[in-house]
Design a protein that fits this description.
Layout (H helix, E strand, L loop, with lengths): L16 E4 L3 E4 L5 E2 L12 H12 L17
Antiparallel strand pairs: 1-2, 2-3
The structure holds zinc ion.
Zinc ion binds next to loops.
Length: about 80
């Protein structure tokens, strides 16, 4: 009975992701800004070329969000 799929169910498939201003990436399907851990397939599975392009674009933006799983630079 009309169980509608909310927009938030978007998988942010990599085919829809495009780099946008500020070093961010946007899903053109649902218009959300997406992080590498939110996309499909998994960022780790997309290969070094894709990963390098993603990281290179991120560096064009303002300070990236702190990564909890990366060791922070000392002071
Ligand atoms: Zn999406």
């Amino acid at each position: 009975m009309g169980r509608s799929m909310p927009m938030l169910a978007c998988t942010h498939h990599v085919a829809w992701i495009k780099p946008v201003a500020g070093g961010k990436h946007q899903c053109t399907y649902c218009k959300a800004a997406v992080a590498k851990k939110e996309i499909y397939p998994k960022f780790e599975d997309l290969g070094p070329t894709f990963q390098a392009q993603w990281d290179a674009h991120e560096k064009t933006g303002p300070a990236p969000a702190p990564k909890a799983d990366a060791p922070a630079a000392a002071h």
